[in-house]
User: Fold these one by one.
Assistant:
Number 1:
Amino acid sequence: MKIRLDKFLSSQNIGTRSTITKQLKLKKVVVNNQIIQQGSFKIDPELDRVLFDNNIINYCNFIYIAMNKPQNYICANKDKSKQTIIDLIKEPFANSLHIVGRLDIDTTGLVLLTNNGSWTHSLKSPNANIEKEYEVTLKDDITDEMLIKLKSDIFLDNKLLKKVRIEKIYKNTCNIILTEGKYHQIKRMFHYVNNEVIKLKRIRIGIFNLENLNIKEGEWTKIII
Ligand code: URA
């Protein structure tokens, strides 16, 4: 299948679309021995020989997936007794994927998967501060005192958590935004203020919003990066 040269170059992590446009103008890109300066030029990644800055690009067809995880599936590639989210992807490439930020078995919502290790790293790196937004339903109503405590310093496993953003939606529901992902973090934070999470759903990771992706629970879609 033919695709635009600029799209191909960005899929191979050569740079952003705008830096690629500059590099094309600087005559850094050669396709089948011919300098190409137009990003709109169409190539077949499987067949054409593309050089960037005199280095051949070994085409790597990365896969990026967004899934709406249902309850009772675990975020793992294999398990002896439980169903995994990989089981929901009935494709030959399923086992090459890794999970970018796990959810607990009873948590639903957005999970990203890929076979591109550097993309995983860029999203999971602690310095990246990628926002993860959750809808939380609690056993008891959320009090002002709880909100104050949740917004101030909290230690888990003797480590200070990064500040969270939290917005009360209704008596016992709220949205919370984290920029890290410690083990059972949200459940433990609410336990700390003497409440209990009874339902948890991740609705956003960075720019990827479950609502815009329009995927039903248990389903997944390929995303373009
Ligand atoms: N925090 C939790 O407690 N569980 C999750 O699945 C995600 C965040």
Number 2:
Amino acid sequence: MIINNLNCCGQKPVISLPSGEKLCKNHFIGYFEGKVFRTIRQFGLLDNEESLGAAVSGGKDSLTVLRILNRLSKDNPKIRINALAIDEGIAGYRDKTLITAKKFCDENNIELHIFSYKEEFGLKLDEMLKILNVKPCTICGIFRRYLLNKKSRELKLTKLATGHNLDDECQSIMMNQMRNDLKASARLGPKVGLISNELFVQRIKPLYLCTEKEATTYAFLSGLLDNFNECQNAAQSFRAKVRDSLNDLENKFPGTKYSIVNSFLQTLPYLKEKFNHGEIRICSKCGEPAANDVCNACIYLEKLKSKITLQK
Ligand code: SF4
Ligand code: ZN
């Protein structure tokens, strides 16, 4: 590509990159997809043969990943793809995004498996939050990770692709630093989950090096950005505060997010070496992998049960 005065060609630019380069629609789509394929190659995210799952929420990032991986699977019959969605039970939000996910999967002949908190745990997230005094994202994340891993394994998926982008990773790195929780950072990176443990399905992040701005622009240009929906619980989270601060820094010092993630990638092998030797236990209640005797999902389910019993 010839860069002329930082513009890719004579067409109207749709995005300005942190480098100052401005790209038109066609050049940006090529740039974005090229970056995703490079990320897959650079971090060895895919093997020659895969039965992949893609975690879809109906949001722009997960549909972008599903769209790109689905096209890849069309060119390579040894890569098969299924979609998994979790219905947490968040009225006015998840019901809407699931309609988008179903529509996309129908139009693209992708099998979609939906698992709900109500069916799996007996309560919707909205109901859980009326019983327990916890930050919504804390229990929501624990139950979602639990179900995605369990269901991916039961579906015999080789890997699960998620829509995490560079901004998400950057937020997680900074949140862990602020909480002095480097052990949690050792579980970050473009490819996560212990391959040596058959209870875990590895998770891969093909958008690892794509910024939120790039992913949003790609989704918009590809017709994936139906209507913008954000979970009503998101604003209460620590992540939202870190996100806003990082956006502020990025505006003042373009390239900040790349720098944080790139320097993190250089330290990641040391973090994995230091922290990833911990023994993985089996939860004594449900048989799923756990850091302690009982997994976090079972701990919260017990708390819910005891509160419900007290209320009766
Ligand atoms: Fe769940 Fe929080 Fe995400 Fe809402 S913002 S879906 S509560 S993790
Ligand atoms: Zn358990």
Number 3:
Amino acid sequence: MTTTTIPQADLTTNLLIDGEWVEAAETFDDLNPADGSLLARVAAGSAADVDRAVRAARAALDGAWGATPGVARGALLNKLADLVERDAAIIARLEALDIGKPVAQPGMLDIPNTVATFRHFAGWADKIQGATIPTAGYLGMAATHSYTVREPVGVIGAIIPWNTPLMIAAWKLGPALAAGNTLVVKPAEDAPLSILHLGTLIEEAGFPAGTVNIVPGLGPVAGQALVEHADVDKISFTGSPEIGRHIQKTAADTFKRVTLELGGKSPQIVLEDANVEAAINGIAMGLFFNQGEVCAAGTRILVHRSLYETVVEALGQAADAQVLGDPFDEATTLGALVSAKQQERVLGYIEKGKAEGARLVAGGTSPDQPGFFVRPTIFADVDNSSTIAREEIFGPVGAVIPFDTVEEAIQIANDTRYGLAATIWTQDVSLAHTVAAKVRAGAVWVNGWAAIDPALPWGGMKASGIGRELGWSGILANTEEKVVTIVL
Ligand code: NAI
Ligand code: MG
């Protein structure tokens, strides 16, 4: 179905280790989700490949990169941002082919956000500072002079998901590189191509060999080897809670630092006084952007009973108005899901929704065509204790739930194992702040969805993860604090 292919010149499929592109003993098949065809055979890194990449990262840390001052690290990050901008069209095509998303979407989010992230952290690179701290002195015998230093954590393993791979890789690379760390990046099996292209840009920008190594491969092989490796200091992971839990347990053996971003079941709370039109547009975007394969997707739509039928009907219409199809057709607003596995998973949840008694308002099936498509789907009258309200579906499926009071809305919003994001739709400033204070989520948006920015900390509460990425919090998560005391 897809008419576009990848020019060989834009296709990178090998491992990047110590500044060299090298083959692996084995490959895995990377598919085009829009028609199921083979896009590329990509190097499947082994434990030995991961080990070589970790050694290269350690050598760069002890060598050229470790000796690169902050201002020069910042200049390299700015150069990388320029190169991503230059290659925006190539990257958008790679993302659309690899993930199945409409080709215009990377230009709306992934690429500008990646560029902004590298620029934001370029700015921090020469501004990471410690403090001088007065103390009572040394055992009453001598005065002291104490100061703190923020040092890089060391070698960081970055494990990336397939939904917005370039952008999430940037969220890990930006702060880690600004703070002087080196990395081994493990892209997801379903979508490694944009990150491999980024590897060519990292080389072109002139980062010292071994600063960033990229080892695509299977999660249980390459990912596992990275998490187990004794010389990796930290794992930064974005993906499912199940793998996140496994990573944290495994990382405990070697006392690695771990940050986890594990998705959510984020509420969209439509209060009685909401601007309904704005809310419906924002909710539709929060459900259908990137096929709903978004960690912060606003999938539980809590609506005040006075607006309930209006919102249900409008969301059904918004779902039906989506144009499902070829990611390279300009009219398309909703592409394919990333894999047959994800399509099956999403269809399985839709069947559970029907079986558990929710009212199907729109969608609910796959079109009869090749590719891993699922129609945009809205369920109304959903019980918050049912499966489709509790589990992350990671597809274009919304669950609408009515409420009568603000207290009830807050109670339902928080009745979930997740806590990544929440949106509140209201025109009452006081109510906005009151509800924002009570919702347990790492990010609360009022009258908008996914108002993200590299300057703002990002991460979840509860099962949505541990730690924060981005902003100054991203620098803190990528540094160790050392105190130096001189007995005078
Ligand atoms: P996953 O959690 O299995 O994969 C994420 C990354 O972890 C991939 O790079 C994978 O290769 C790697 N991985 C897998 N096993 C590993 C291991 N033993 N050690 C180290 N790394 C390992 O996610 P999957 O199966 O692709 O998607 C399943 C569900 O996870 C989705 O339906 C969605 O609900 C959720 N998810 C959430 C994301 C988010 O942004 N928070 C992103 C992707 C998936
Ligand atoms: Mg793919």
